[in-house]
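Final report, section 2: Outcomes. Of the targets proposed, Glycerol dehydrogenase is the one most frequently requested by collaborating groups, and we therefore present its record in full.
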Amino acid sequence: MPVLTRLIPSPVVVDIRPGALDDLASVLSDERISHSGKLAVAVSSGSGAKLRERIAPALPGATWYEVGGGTLDDAIRLAGAMRAGHYDAVVGLGGGKIIDCAKFAAARVGLPLVAVPTNLAHDGLCSPVATLDNDAGRGSYGVPNPIAVVIDLDVIREAPARFVRSGIGDAVSNISAIADWELANRVNGEKIDGLAAAVARQAGEAVLRHPGGIGDNDFLQVLAEALVLSGIAMSVSGDSRPSSGACHEINHAFDLLFPQRAASHGEQCGLGAAFAMFLRGAHEESAYMAEVLHRHGLPVLPEEIGFTVDEFVQVVEFAPQTRPGRYTILEHLDLKPNQIKDIYSDYAKAIGS
Ligand SMILES: [Zn+2]
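The predicted structure is given below as tokens.
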């Protein structure tokens, strides 16, 4: 008897709306995630204090833990501190670093994680990966998917616009990542998980085609949903393939070659995606993507984030080394620096016109 269906690892609760945070305790109790209300809440020591003040009355049974940063040591320390309490769940309340620390700590102490992101900087908020800085640089650690994702759009609206914009670049880059996956399938026979590809692509398309901006709740709703869906697509495929191709190799190359000057994840991924679309000859799609990114205030040219053309050429040349084994348009074309420079000048002209 063949297996005729499959279970998709996904959160039990996805609650995305203005004011969602006020109902956090009741949602967790209704869904039997936390009966007793005993929660370990990880927050940042900086901006977390204000949030804590606001939310603490709604979570009387919570113990609050301040997380120093986004390192593996911070996450291990957090897990150690939480071990003494008898909690129903861990709540990660904050930006990407806090969520990743909480994800790792929750996995370590064997508790489910409730992700409560306070910005929409990238699609890691619902993914089965915790990205943490370690002695060797930065590592990706496999962890269970969050059991619940609660995104309060009122809280998101208060986050710095740059962090919210970053999520747009990350979501839209799915379209380029899927094109890379299809290329790897055509050229190398790499298997595509059709469901993961569909979920990730639709998430990217929804953000790309939405007429609104980060000031509108309906746009933020679609963006938050797209980032959650991207995370689920990665859970479905079991790796980051649906949301990470040449766009992310370019992003990693910026981070590795220019760690002090790198821009945000989504800014670099969006720029990488628009350029990768051009590389694969999808000039109209590239121009449209660039137009949308620009409308949202995201960069589409390296100079807009303080890099020269030569530095960008260096980034693109180095990019394939950041993700060995992943076949994208960059590995496919295997361009020399002077070729990258020529194509870049055509790209800059095309999106400028
Ligand atoms: Zn990403």
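Residues 122-123, 170, 243, 248, 265, 269 surround zinc ion (CB under 6 Å).
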